[in-house]
Amino acid sequence: MEEEMLTGGNSTIVVRVGHTVRRTVGPWTLAVHQLLVRLRAEGITEVPEPRGVDEDGREVLSYSVGVVPGYPLPEWVWAETILLAAGQLLRRIHDASTALVGEDLVWQLPTHHPVEVICHNDFAPYNLVFRNGRLRGVIDFDTASPGPRIWDLAYLAYRLVPLTDSAEDGGPPAPDRAGRLQLLIDSYEMPYEPAELLAVVAARLDELAVFTDARAAETGRDDFAEHAAMYRRDRDRVLATG
């Protein structure tokens, strides 16, 4: 069948073949597939279904039908209903992932403590699938790893409250950041304080900047270096806010 290159990935080549997605396997692929199987067994059909490996040695996943928004994000992404739905879906994924905590599995990214769940580690609009303006799925679990719940929630807050420079992201020009942050916390239904979440956002961005600087050095890509600088600017803004 004809292969269609999918856009949006920064690290690996991803192609669509019919109703499936194919991508290069890594030492972590088995763990990711076990996570996806577990999530779907718990009724979370919003995640891709793993379908093994093809004749070229690539992993095979079901294709998630819908729109994955790119930057600058469209205006409809900022609806409060989407913010609520994203927090609720993340909570369901986390709850269902706890069965794999403590398992001897290889993950691509390091573990963060305290370990409570298996984090997606990139739960953001560019990995969310929408149909008719409603959240219908989440993709790209390749960087999943064990960690605390708040680690994932903090990154979602960064991208969807947003706590970025909203002008760059196409977000609302003057979002009610405090109100949207509290709404996200409420949707996840854990008693986090906003200041607690903001502190983790800053730590998350600090680590992400170091990681992205390393990727820039490895690849020579200027866009990675620019992203690292952006993460540090956003970290400083979050710390000033908190």
Automatic annotation (TrEMBL):
Residues 110-161 form the Aminoglycoside phosphotransferase domain. Pfam families: APH. It comes from the Bacteria. InterPro entries: Aminoglycoside_PTrfase, Kinase-like_dom_sf. SUPFAM superfamilies: Protein kinase-like (PK-like) (SSF56112). This is Aminoglycoside phosphotransferase family protein. It comes from Kocuria gwangalliensis.
